[in-house]
């Protein structure tokens, strides 16, 4: 059969609140044109994030009922630890309430002020946690990774020439770790190849620098390797994932993505001494090392999720549904980051709305139009999120790209939901020349995209 179906049936349904275009115009104005300020009930299709928004399976809910809520040494912890060790292969596992808690603990242990941390592309919480330690976060994705229209099977790869040059310039002693984000979220959900992982690992080993993965979407990355990299078609995703992790010294993980859970995360390492330091910090803010800020039922749901996410019929459906959205809007001429990534489609708002300058936030304008058109919530990843102020001139330096991300929650929406999203994007695309830019009327000094207020320019 050529048709790829959702490999599940639906047992519990959650009604969507319908709204009219007139109602949405009022709601959006009241939210000051910031989609983070909307009440979720006023959203028809919520593509704000794929993080923590997935549907759990009947097996995960059953596991949640088995949750052991003992403070120390619970059976849930034992199942969680065994599952993480089996899938990831690292020696020590430290549970956290989500990914950024793992990041904070890792960088608190490894980074000193003045240090430099290279990554293919840091996610914003990763960057913020490194900068909070007084260290510098440097993005070294390959040049194709920064060109939305460029086609490359592994656009998330790290530029290894640039990595070697950075080590030479800064000195290995000032680089406490090298990171690879798999898949590369900020640059389009693009995968990293095994060849690139191997090469980065060998550079890291040569200079005695530990290599860590930001492993949020590891299963999607492993499946891309199976589909696209020579020599992997016959291997299982489980084997590929283990091979990926065998090249690393540890990882941070948000179980809200490829853990198929609504909350949770963890930190892994093979270094016993470091694990002990990390556990000491964990106790300070997250909790005892056998629960790390999670309930026993969360640990059990993650333990099952990490197994289910490796099912290849699930991964085939997952990548197919993201690709379906990307291909249908590309066919109508909508410019997107090519090729479609694992968890999201990124519309290139700069290319779609060339009449709106970056200073008038084309991505924000487009995200607002998608809401007005059909009640779809997306997120701007452009100059609202990443624009910087020039310290000398006070002028705003635009972001490298002006993107709008449509992130697909796991196992939540069906193909007709995606057809509805396609229709809405095409309708907005057809009236793109009439779309006006935005101006910021109020903003916070950092991470302004969450709370900024806008009006039409
Ligand atoms: N690393 C990556 C690559 C991520 O995408 C995220 C979260 C994190 C780390 C942090 O994990 O949210 O559990 O603390 N990404 C979400 C998103 C929020 O919408 O892309 P967290």
- Please provide the count of β strands: 16
Question: Cofactors and ligands present?
Answer: ligand F0G
The CATH architecture category of the largest domain equals: 3-Layer(aba) Sandwich
Mean pLDDT: 96
Percentage of residues assigned to helices: 25-40%
What portion of residues belong to β-strands?
5-15%
Largest sheet: 5 strands, mixed
Total number of domains: 2
Going by CATH, what is the homologous superfamily of the largest domain? Answer: Type I PLP-dependent aspartate aminotransferase-like (Major domain)
Q: How are the strands ordered across the major sheet?
A: 2-8-7-6-5
From the N-terminal CA to the C-terminal CA, the straight-line distance is 51 Å
Ranges with pLDDT <50 over ≥5 residues? none
CATH C-level class of the largest domain is: Alpha Beta
Count of helical segments?
A: 16
| Radius of gyration, in angstroms, nearest whole number | 22 Å
Care to describe what's here?
The chain is of the alpha/beta class. It folds into two domains: 21-50 and 312-456, Alpha-Beta Complex (Aspartate Aminotransferase, domain 1), CATH 3.90.1150.10; 58-308, Type I PLP-dependent aspartate aminotransferase-like (Major domain) (Aspartate Aminotransferase, domain 2). Helices cover 40% and strands 13% of the residues. The protein has helices at 21-30, 58-65, 75-88, 99-110, 124-132, 160-170, 194-206, 218-228, 237-246, 272-285, 296-308, 312-331, 349-352, 362-374, 383-386, 415-430, and strands at residues 45-46, 92-96, 116-119, 136-139, 178-181, 211-214, 250-254, 265-269, 344-348, 376-377, 379-381, 388-389, 396-397, 403-407, 438-442, 453-456. The strands form six sheets. The chain has a five-stranded mixed sheet with strand order 2-8-7-6-5, sandwiched between helices. Helix 7 (194-206) links the parallel strand 5 and strand 6. Helix 1 (21-30) packs across helix 14. The radius of gyration is 22 Å and the shape is globular. The protein starts with 20 loop residues before the first helix and ends with a strand. The mean pLDDT is 96. Ligand F0G is lined by residues 49, 51, 98-100, 123, 125-126, 181, 185, 214, 216, 254, 256, 265.
């Amino acid at each position: 059969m050529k048709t790829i179906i959702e490999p599940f049936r639906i047992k519990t349904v959650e009604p969507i609140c319908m709204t009219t275009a007139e109602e949405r115009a009022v709601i959006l104005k009241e939210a000051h044109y910031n989609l983070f300020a909307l009440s979720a009930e006023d959203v028809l299709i919520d593509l704000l994030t794929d993080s923590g928004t997935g549907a759990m399976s009947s097996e995960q809910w059953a596991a949640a009922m088995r949750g052991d809520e003992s403070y120390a040494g619970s059976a849930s912890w034992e199942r969680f630890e065994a599952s993480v060790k089996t899938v990831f292969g690292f020696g020590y596992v430290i549970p956290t309430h989500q990914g950024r808690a793992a990041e904070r603990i890792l960088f608190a242990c490894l980074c000193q002020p003045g240090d430099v941390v290279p990554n293919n592309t840091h996610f914003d919480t990763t960057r913020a946690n490194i900068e909070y330690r007084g260290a510098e976060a440097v993005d070294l994705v390959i040049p194709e990774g920064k060109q939305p229209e460029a086609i490359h099977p592994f656009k998330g790869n790290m530029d290894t020439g640039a990595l070697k040059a950075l080590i030479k310039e800064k000195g290995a002693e000032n680089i406490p770790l090298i990171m690879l984000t798999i898949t590369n979220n900020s640059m389009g959900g693009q995968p990293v190849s095994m060849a690139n992982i191997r090469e980065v690992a060998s550079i890291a080993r040569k200079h005695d620098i530990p290599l860590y993965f930001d492993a949020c979407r590891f299963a999607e990355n492993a499946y891309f390797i199976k589909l696209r990299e020579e020599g992997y078609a016959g291997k299982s995703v489980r084997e590929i994932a283990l091979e990926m992790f065998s090249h690393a010294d540890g990882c941070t993980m948000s179980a809200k993505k490829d853990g198929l859970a609504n909350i949770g995360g963890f930190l892994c390492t093979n270094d016993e001494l470091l694990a002990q330091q990390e556990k000491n910090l964990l106790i300070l803010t997250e909790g005892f090392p056998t629960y790390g800020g999670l309930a026993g039922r969360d640990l059990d749901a993650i333990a099952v999720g990490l197994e289910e996410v490796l099912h290849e019929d699930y991964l085939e459906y997952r990548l197919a549904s993201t690709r379906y959205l990307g291909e249908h809007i590309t066919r109508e001429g909508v410019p997107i980051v090519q090729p479609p990534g694992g968890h999201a489609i990124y519309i290139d708002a700069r290319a779609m709305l060339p009449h709106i300058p970056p200073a008038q936030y084309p991505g924000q304008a487009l995200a607002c139009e998608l809401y007005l058109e059909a009640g779809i919530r997306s997120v701007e990843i452009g100059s609202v999120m990443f624009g910087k102020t020039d310290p000398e001139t006070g002028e705003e330096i635009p972001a490298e790209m002006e993107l709008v991300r449509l992130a697909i929650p796991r196992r939540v929406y069906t193909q007709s939901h995606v057809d509805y999203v396609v229709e809405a994007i095409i309708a907005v695309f057809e009236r793109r020349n009439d779309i006006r830019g935005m101006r910021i009327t109020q903003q916070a000094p950092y991470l302004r995209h969450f709370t900024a207020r806008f009006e039409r320019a």
